[in-house]
Amino acid sequence: LMARIDAEWQIDLFPEHVREENMVTWNRQAARVDAVSRLLYDELILQETSGAVPDVEAAAALLAENALEAGMERFVDVETLEQWLGRLEFAGFAVPDLPEAFKEFCRGLRSFADLKGAAGSFFHRLEQKLDAHRLRELAPLTVRLAAGRQVKVQYQRGKAPWIASRLQDFFGMRETPRIGPQQTPVVLHLLAPNRQPVQTTTDLAGFWERLYPEVRRKLMRRYPRHDWPEHHGG
Fold first, then answer.
1. Which of 34, 42, 161, 176 has the fewest CB atoms inside 10 Å of its own CB, making it the most exposed?
2. What tens digit of pLDDT does each residue of 62-72 get?
3. Angle between helical axes of 98-105 and 56-70 (0-180°, round to 10)
């Protein structure tokens, strides 16, 4: 015959063997951290309840562990991450420990759904730990062209920063925009009206002088309704 174990009996008779344990567990089905409270007699579980609010630090560590195992790209846009890392490299900033930063980002969150909802602020949180003003100064997000158009600067690790815009947007400019600690010339992707590239250069003055006359003749035939002035530079 099996005797029913009553938790209260164990506490009354053998209190030195009974302990309470609070822990967090990973709910794979719900992709969520759950809090569990257990009453144990040595290693025997007498009672187990769940649903309490988990310890913040323990929950963050367990959520980060499972999220990193699943892949950070599930929660953080990879293109945005690469662009951000490229900006840091160009500006000469040290790259932070991303897994550790991700663990900190998980504080106060409990599930993959929470992470996806908060992912948009991940890079803002990272920049708060840096000299954000200096980063914008050395690696600006945009540059202004002569006609006033603001163009997004694209950053990639191991490559010079570049911008892409229609050739007409560069009319009135003589020199290539320069940015960064070394005043690096931005790589210019000069586009036709159909947004296809017609030239890539870091020497805008040289392009106007040597290549533009031939480019102009071709584009005038293909796009006669657009203005293709002979004198273009600033």
1. 42
2. 999 999 999 98
3. 130
